[in-house]
Specification:
By secondary structure, the protein is α/β, with parallel strands linked by helices. The chain has ten helices and nine strands.
Length: 275
C-alpha cells in the first residue's frame, strides 16, 4: 500500500494527475504520510469537511506534528483524504465571530469551487480555532463579523460620540462598547493575524442582507434563506444554523471586496465596515 501511495504521490508531483486520492485507515495512516513526506511534499493541505483538530490532540501523535509543522488541515472524522494542489494567492475566508467557548464561531471558505463551513466546538478556544485555520488555509484576507476598532471619541475629552463609530451610526449597528469582551478579542485577533501577514477587514452581514434585499427570511426561515443565498454564491452545504449563514454572508462581503464591489462605511482613521 505504501508503494502504491508513493507512486500516486510521485505522479502528482510530476503533474500527472493534478489531484491524488489516497485512502487509508488505522495503522496505514503513518505509513502513507511517511511516503508523502519522503516524496518531498512540504506544503500540502488535506481537504477538510470537518472541524480543524488541535495540534496537541493526543489521538494524532505523529500527525499532530505534521499538522503543526506543515500547515495541513485534517478531516478528523473520515478515513478518506485528498491531497490537493498548492494553494493560490488571494485566498479569503468569512468569519462569524462569537463567544470564545460557546461553539458558535463559524468559518466559510471555498475549496474546489464549492463553499464549505466549519464551526468551533463548545468548550474549545474559538480564537485559536480561527488562527489555526487561517494559517492552514493560508488565507491572505480575513473578513470578520465583529468590531475591529473603537469610537474615535474615546480619545477626545470634549466629544460626546463615545459609544458609536461613524460606520455604526450609518448602519445602525450595535456599539463596539456594548459588545465588551467580544470587541477586545476581535481587536486582538486582528492584530495577531496582521503580524502574521494576513489582512483583516470588518464586515456586517445584517447590512449585506438589507443591501441585497434578502430580509424576508433572514433569521426567520433558514432553509428558505439558504435557497435565496444560493443564487449569489458557489454551491453551498446545508447550513445548520444562523452562525453558519452569517459566516457565508461574511464570505460574500469578502467576495464583493475582492471584486471591487463592496460598499464602504465609516472613516479610515476610526474604522471601516465593508458590506
Amino acid at each position: 500500500m505504501v508503494a502504491f501511495c508513493y507512486r500516486r504521490i510521485s505522479k502528482w508531483k510530476q503533474g500527472d494527475p493534478k489531484h491524488v486520492s489516497v485512502f487509508f485507515k488505522n495503522m496505514h495512516l503513518h505509513a502513507v504520510f511517511g511516503a508523502a513526506i519522503g516524496a518531498g511534499l512540504r506544503n500540502l493541505r488535506l481537504a477538510n469537511t470537518g472541524r480543524f483538530p488541535s495540534v496537541n490532540d493526543h489521538r494524532f501523535g505523529f500527525l499532530g506534528k505534521i499538522i503543526k509543522d506543515r500547515n495541513i488541515v485534517l478531516n478528523k472524522f473520515k478515513s478518506s483524504f485528498r491531497i490537493l494542489e498548492p494553494m493560490p494567492e488571494n485566498r479569503f475566508i468569512g468569519i462569524d465571530f462569537s463567544s470564545k467557548r460557546a461553539g458558535t464561531t463559524a468559518i466559510a471558505f471555498v475549496d474546489e469551487g464549492e463553499l464549505h463551513v466549519l464551526q468551533s466546538i463548545k468548550g474549545e478556544d474559538a480564537d485559536k480555532f480561527i488562527r489555526n485555520y487561517v494559517q492552514a488555509y493560508k488565507a491572505n484576507f480575513v473578513f470578520i463579523d465583529a468590531p475591529l476598532s473603537l469610537p474615535q471619541g474615546l480619545n477626545d475629552p470634549e466629544s460626546l460620540e463615545v459609544f458609536y463609530r461613524a460606520a455604526d451610526r450609518k448602519l445602525q449597528a450595535m456599539s463596539p462598547m456594548f459588545l465588551g469582551g467580544l470587541t477586545s478579542r476581535a481587536m486582538l485577533l486582528k492584530k495577531t493575524l496582521e503580524l502574521e501577514k494576513h489582512k483583516v477587514f470588518e464586515v456586517y452581514p445584517k447590512a449585506l442582507v438589507e443591501e441585497l434585499q434578502l430580509k424576508e427570511h433572514y433569521k426567520h426561515d433558514l432553509l428558505l434563506f439558504q435557497k435565496e443565498l444560493q443564487q449569489l454564491t458557489p454551491p453551498l452545504p446545508e447550513l445548520r444554523n444562523w452562525h453558519q449563514a452569517d459566516a457565508v454572508l461574511a464570505w460574500l462581503s469578502g467576495s464583493r471586496f475582492m471584486q471591487g464591489d463592496a460598499s464602504v462605511y465609516g472613516d479610515e482613521t476610526e474604522g471601516v465596515i465593508y458590506v
